[in-house]
Amino acid sequence: MKVAVINSGSSSIKFKIFDMDSEKVIVDILVEEITNHHKALEDIISELEYQNIDFTSLDMIGHRVVHGGEEFCKSVVITSLVIDKIRELVPLAPLHNMANLDGILVCQKKVPHIKQIAVFDTAFHATMPKEAFLYALPYEMYDTYKIRRYGFHGTSHSYLLKKCALILDKEVSKLNIITLHLGNGASICAIKNGKSVDTSMGFTPLEGLIMGSRSGDIDSSIVLHLQRSLGFSIDEVDNILNTKSGLKGICDHSDVRDIVDSDNEKDKLALSMMIRRIKKYVGAYMTLLESIDAIVFSGGIGENSTYIREKVMDNNLACGVPILVIKTDEELEIVRECKSI
Asked: Which are the contacts of 5, defined by CB distance < 8 A and separation ≥ 6?
């Protein structure tokens, strides 16, 4: 059986075709710096046709979907109702859910006969206890509007957990680890006895760490001040927090590779701010977990930047704890979810 996996990020698409039985990759396409996901996906399908790869002969297509809300605590077969719900959740993950939905709609148009599976980033974090996922807002905000912390990058954190268990030769259900998915989007997860108990992203992927163009944690009153006192519109504030903040906001570069060796003061400041925020979360999660089997670095930055890893782990932050670097494989995790369905 052959399954295609479409992983649409905020600015990239990873497209792979796997032999499901052997889990080997048959086709591997990466498109970066995307401004139109719909067109990019159509171009990928055209490229497959050019290479004489029959897209219509696939057995299944798995899609990474970032926000599943409380409705989707596990992967599901995509139906019209599922599509409607993913569309409803677009405002909660504006950089992602629309891109994910584009992939689903393009495939429905091109190959309507092929079963499609949605694998949700939020599902892995459904095990967080209430004291972790609730905000200290009036309780009816959760009861009525489901305003709560959801967490993201769950597909990656889930893969890292299982891979770490293999490396340490320990049962998943007995593993206490901190996983760091550090890329243009970044999050940290505290995993206790094989289950997510806390994570840095919240109601949307905006909360938590300082990212490529996202602010991460800020005083929420800043949003009110920008609108009420300075006259910024809601859309302008949304755009600032999601696309003009983070590293980009401080030094005008969103890619760590562009600034890690720079002598520019703003570049160095942006890096220091990002590293400081990561260390704060790691320290907090060490306290939550009490005992730790490993700290795992992954994602484009976590896997490739020795500088960032060393700076995060300096001052004996986790003395005696194994530090692992694992290349995440969200697409393989999606294949395994498709196989389970």
From this structure: 14, 15, 16, 17, 18, 61, 62, 63, 64, 331, 334, 335, 338
- 302 touches 182 (CB < 8 A): yes
59 is catalytic: no
Strand partners, 12: 32
User: What domains sit in the chain, N to C, each tagged with a CATH number?
Assistant: 2-120 (3.30.420.40), 171-330 (3.30.420.40)
Full strand arrangement of the beta sheet holding 76-77: 24-32, 12-19, 2-8, 60-65, 115-120, 76-77
Mean pLDDT of the chain: 94
Strands in the chain per DSSP E: 2-8, 12-19, 24-32, 60-65, 76-77, 115-120, 177-182, 186-192, 195-199, 294-298, 323-325
- In this predicted model, which residue has the larger pLDDT, 47 or 297? 297
Structure tokens at 103: 């992939």
Identify the active-site residue in 19, 54, 121, 255: 121
Structure tokens at 187: 């999050």
- What percent of the chain has pLDDT above 90? 82
